[in-house]
Amino acid sequence: MSKYDYSPGGRTFYWVYYLTLVVIAFSGMGQMPILKRYYIADLPLMTWSANFYTVAWLHYLVVALLLALLAWRFTLNSRIPGKVAWAWGPRSWWGWTLLAILFCSGVIKVFKNLGVYFPPSFLVVNDLIHIGSTMAFMISGLVRLFLKGKQPAIG
Amino acid sequence: MARNLSRRSFLKGGAAAAATLAASPLVLPQAVQAATGQELCTVLDLSKCIGCESCVDACREQWQDTVLVPQGPMPKPFPERVPIEDWSKKKDVQDRLTPYNFLYIEMLEIDYKGESRELNIPRRCMHCLNPPCVDLCPFGASRVEKNGVVHIDSEICLGGAKCRKVCPWHIPQRQSGVGIYLDLMPTLAGNGVMFKCHRCLPLVKEGKQPRCVEVCPEHVQSIGPRSQMLKKAEALARQMAKKDGAGEDKWKDYVYGLEENGGTSTIYVSPIPFAVVAKAIDKQHREIKQEEIARVAKKNPKKAKRMKKSNLGRPHMHRVADAMANAENLTYALALAPVAGVVAGFTKLFSKLNHTPSSEASSGQDKGGQA
């Protein structure tokens, strides 16, 4: 077994994870009013992306899928003797930290969307942290992909 | 009038408790605000409005000069289809919402029960309890205060107009060529600043009344703690329903804003049912738009074609479902997803197939691919 290839569930889970990240990034970026402006919503089968509500609910759904995947991984990891390197998921403390920041700032946004009051200036900082850590997560993944060639790992 | 305990309020309560435990000085749930009387609400008795526009004039006098004005040539946005919206040379427009006009009077002639009735409706931001413009603004420029005021921070707004698109009434209006986007990437991102009624937030913070409430000679509007205002609106609506011969139990037909978009802090009470009012507004808006399009078509047919989809700056008055209702259901999905993952994980662990790294490696199964 090579260093990064433990993937119970096989290739399906591997690709589901990366597809989830792509859709999360797309629906997250789509929260900014750019998809219509830059003709993405004009592409065939992409008309829905001009609707901010649809994009927001899609973001919720794919994040739920990611949470399920990560919970599944943690559960399996808890019973595996010794250290294993998973084929998918963050592979460094940096990646996990960014994911944790994204999770915490995302939870605050979810509460806000339910109508819970937070001070406006706190929300601005939270939004910037959410956007900033997303960018850092994506850039880290891309850098690792291009530098290491073989490993499309995030973080 | 008691608030019903909905699934949303239950979730909000749970969320509030969690947030308070995590960071008690930072957060205060809306339910608590209402209970402590901090959340303010306005009630508009439309039977009193004579359409004198004193409120509109007072609002303009107080706030028009605070709205930014473009300095120098306006950057040409890319791509070209991004519209430039410049109201700086049309500041005198006061029969619709513009960046320089936060309030206008919708003047209606309604045929109702065989007679022509006049109804004047001051229109401005509804100040929703859970405003989608605030929830979905990606940069936190759109804000809601403890006192229920929804406002836009012009210092950080990039003018993408998402708030206008997600607002059920399309209230915020854009002024291009102003704001922070000019210092970032004026051609590629942003397009000005969004402006709308902030219910005189700076004055309210000083304990004063909003200008539109203060100057009204007919006392159309009243402002106060939400619980009191809800009682007042209900009592008024019951009177109007009775007077209209509809029966008091139909009082909600004479109220607008109480349940719209999950509840707002602007509650209209009308002597004519809002189903009738909404139709009359639609008819009037269609006529206004047709006139505008015909006028523009004479000079610029291409622009007239685009106008069919353009924003009229005049909000409708149809019943509005809670735009953020899906957030509640999807929050359940977010909460349950990790549980499902853990259950699936344990199912796999205790299944007959013993999946350990060594067994998977040796069998060659469950091996992740490499991109």
Describe this structure in words.
The complex is a heterodimer of chains A (155) and B (371). With 155 residues, chain A is an all-alpha fold. Chain A folds into two domains: 1-89; 91-155. Chain A is built from four helices and no strands. In chain A, α1 runs antiparallel to α2 and α3 runs antiparallel to α4 (120-148). By secondary structure, chain B is α+β, with helices and mostly antiparallel strands. Chain B has a single domain (34-330), classed as Alpha-Beta Plaits. Chain B has twelve helices and ten strands. Residues 1-5, 16-37 and 358-371 of chain B have low confidence and may be disordered. The chains are: A mainly alpha (155), B alpha+beta (371). Chains A and B meet through α1, α2, α3 and α4 of A and α1, α4, α5, α11 and α12 of B.
Short key terms for the protein model shown above:
heterodimer; A: 155 residues; mainly alpha; 2 domains; B: 371 residues; alpha+beta; Alpha-Beta Plaits; 4-stranded mixed β-sheet; two-stranded antiparallel ribbon; 10 strands; 36% helix; disordered N terminus; disordered C terminus
